[in-house]
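step 3/5: co-fold with PMV
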Amino acid sequence: MTKIEQSQFSIPKKLEKLQNKLLNLRQTGKLLLQNGDVGIASAPSNIALIKYWGKNKLKFQEPDNSSLSFTLDHFRAQTNITVRGRFFPEGDAPEYVPENLFHLTDSESQKSTEVIPEKLSKFLKRILHPYANDIGLKIESENNFPTACGIASSAAGFAALCFALDNLLNLEKHFSLLERQYWLSQWSRLGSGSALRSTCLASSSKFVSWELKKNGSSEIKNISYHKEWNHLQHCVLILDSKEKEVSSSSGHLFADTSPFYKIRLSYVEENFTKFKQAIEEFDFDFITKFTEYDAFFMHSIMHTSTPQAIYLNTETSFVISEFVRFRQKTKIKAFWTLDAGPNVHILYLQKYHAQIKRFQKFISKEIGRKIKVYE
Ligand code: PMV
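step 4/5: write tokens
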């Protein structure tokens, strides 16, 4: 194994550089992994206030628009990786390569699965194959919130996996913080675009952007924010916890068939700087208006693309309209947003917690069943 075998497990050009460095560390005996070595990490999920929806088909995992999210520190994935097999400097060919194993537990619903998703399998091959094609990994991951129902479980999952790989490979020893941040963001986007916004190494990363640069590439940024945002709370009303029918990976690919697609791209890019400024200045009303617009904008694109992707249900519309009515009456500082699913996320200032509880109760009463809330 002397050079990256790119064709089979294609990766962005930029990543080849990292893979070659890792390959070199292996060849010089500085990166040795053995059966039973472990990497452990946890990562938060995030909810986009400005959504990433649609990607540049000519480039590898580059978004068509800048996005920005609020980190959900209370929704986390915890991942342990254990090496199966051997990993020594190049030499004897291994007799066999142990397969990758996967175990995902969703501690809220107590559901667990051993089936390794295709997306994960491909991700592991892309990331490991060039310098570690003779080991398998056992990946054990646990989410403290429901999986795959539009509350960004893949963001937390892939981010935790990347952090655990970083821990296993001891990247801290070989790379600067800036380099590690760069590689982590390059890795994570291969699994899930939104995961990238959960891989910020900065200690306080409440708002994270994934920004398009003039040269067409993109980068993550930890956004500076007004201290009043420390009082921002989040909850999500689970209207349906079934797995979504259309994955976001396929949704991104046909997003540009919607007549609203280009309109949204220019609207978002025009307002992106103002949005970041509103975070710095604590302009709550601007953030409210723009976040809610963009959630509707993204779902309008989903509804008008070919094929259509419809994630919302009648209860979603009911909850949103009742929430807006409730906000007008009570004058609370709060806003809603959606992910690729029917569940309604509410972000509000801590001092309005009692009112939000009242609203949650009201919704359960009106809908006629207990609506589960995660907060
Ligand atoms: O993370 P992906 O590649 O599955 O895309 C998810 C996109 C949304 O969650 C719908 C929006 C976002 O920006 O998080």
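step 5/5: annotate
The pocket of PMV is lined by residues 48, 51-53, 67, 152, 154-155, 192-194, 248-249, 339-340 (CB under 6 Å).
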